Amino acid sequence: MKQLAPEPPAIVRNDSITIQNLFKQYVMPTYGRFDLALARGEGSYVYDVAGRRYLDLGGGIAVCALGHANPEITEALVQQSRTLVHVSNLYYHEPQGRLAQELVKRIGPGKVFFSNSGAEANEGLFKLARKFGHHEGRFEVITAVNSFHGRTLAGIAATGQEKVKKGFEPAVPGFRHVPYNDLHAMRDAVSPATAAILIEGIQGEGGVSPATPEYLLGLRELCNEKKLLLMMDEVQCGHFRSGRLHSYHRILEGANKFLPDAVSMAKSLGGGFPIGAFWVREPYAELLGPGTHASTFGGTPLGCAVALKVLEVIGRDDLAANVRELGDHMKNRLVSLAQKYPATIKNARGLGFMLGLELVEKIPTLNNNDKPASIQFTNRLHEAGVLAIPAGTNVIRLLPPLNLRPTEADEGLDVIESVVKRLV
Ligand code: PLP
């Protein structure tokens, strides 16, 4: 019989050096990668090519909502790929319509556009803001210092961090940044050219900083008063990561009158399948009309079927409650750790499964190395069998799957404590 699956080449035999050499030779060196080659995953764990197991508390940077190799996601992928993988957005299909309906049901009256990534979802928001202000000559979007909104040209212009802009000047015009959680600064920054404000409910790349309830409510008021769009970037902090659908739902628990004008999403939305989206509320939901925006791969039947399954499982298993309860437990343990080791840990913060551990500025044990403390600490976690995500030079982020188990959470926290202990 003809061999359908030929002998796997060396790469599939999972030799770490071979894989790293392939990257060195053929992959653009845009990422600082850790010295880890991963081969497979199962639930909250991933395995490197040598078969060593790691508890994945990074979740692919807030992507793997249901963990790795989730059988229900696999089943949805297989079933949908047997039916219809892709059709052009020139046609209708059920999965995209259903997913939009589910999102609107949960967010508020409005409409959804589907993209492939977070940056692309934010691009949609920037275009929405321009369209919104166009007839009055308004085009400017104000964002926060330390924000992160993606790596496209407009994304880096919107991002409030100099390091992502360097070397790519001139910047796309129309973006300014003001200190986060500072309502006065925002009010002072609004100019006759301002069309919108874009804010993360919890800054992720900037180091896990939640917005205060007063800030969000104040922004809503300011936007109403000045006729600006209030746009939330929920790419990292959204989709139940905070323990509610979007971070503003958790931050403003009980205050159900708050509704932004637009929300961008990606990451956990597809549980690992690349899909992004932005929602726009009525009466702005049709500002982007026929011919004004498009994406070949936006909202494919395959991507939408998977995202629908992710939503279904999160709801069925009440994973939002798991995130709130276990997230509180994890945060309490991290806060205790900070109190116990003040010479190493400056503080612990975050909401739900978006937690940050801030290291003190100068930890003597980490001083003889030119790598930032966050990278060195993460390397030590890897050696001890846990994956986590650095943010900036001093923060370690935990962004585990929403179905993380209590025993796994404690296992990870024990490992984190053991690493902290060895730094003292
Ligand atoms: N917005 C936020 C808040 C993010 O954290 C990210 C990615 O980390 C993005 C946008 C960009 O998303 P993507 O990498 O999918 O383009």
Quick tags:
18% strand, alpha/beta, globular, 17 strands, binds pyridoxal-5'-phosphate, four-stranded mixed beta sheet, Aspartate Aminotransferase, domain 1, seven-stranded mixed beta sheet
How do you describe this structure in short?
The protein is α/β, with parallel strands linked by helices and 424 residues long. The protein is built from 13 helices and 17 strands.
Succession of helices and strands? HEEEHHHEHEHEHEEEHEHEEHHEEHEEEH
Name the bound molecules: pyridoxal-5'-phosphate
Mean pLDDT: 96
Q: How widely separated are the two ends?
A: 63 Å
Strand order of the largest sheet: 4-12-11-10-7-5-6
**Could you give the count of β-strands?**
17
**Helix-and-strand structural type:** alpha/beta
Report the sheet-strand fraction: 15-25%
Give the tally of structural domains.
2
The Cα radius of gyration reads 22 Å
* Assigned CATH superfamily of the largest domain: Type I PLP-dependent aspartate aminotransferase-like (Major domain)
> Could you give a short account of the major beta sheet?
7 strands, mixed
Low-confidence spans = none
CATH architectural name of the largest domain? 3-Layer(aba) Sandwich
Which term fits the overall shape? globular
CATH class of the largest domain: Alpha Beta
CATH topology of the largest domain: Aspartate Aminotransferase, domain 2
Count of DSSP-assigned helices: 13
The oligomeric state of the chains shown is single chain
Q: What is the helix fraction of residues, given as a range?
A: 25-40%
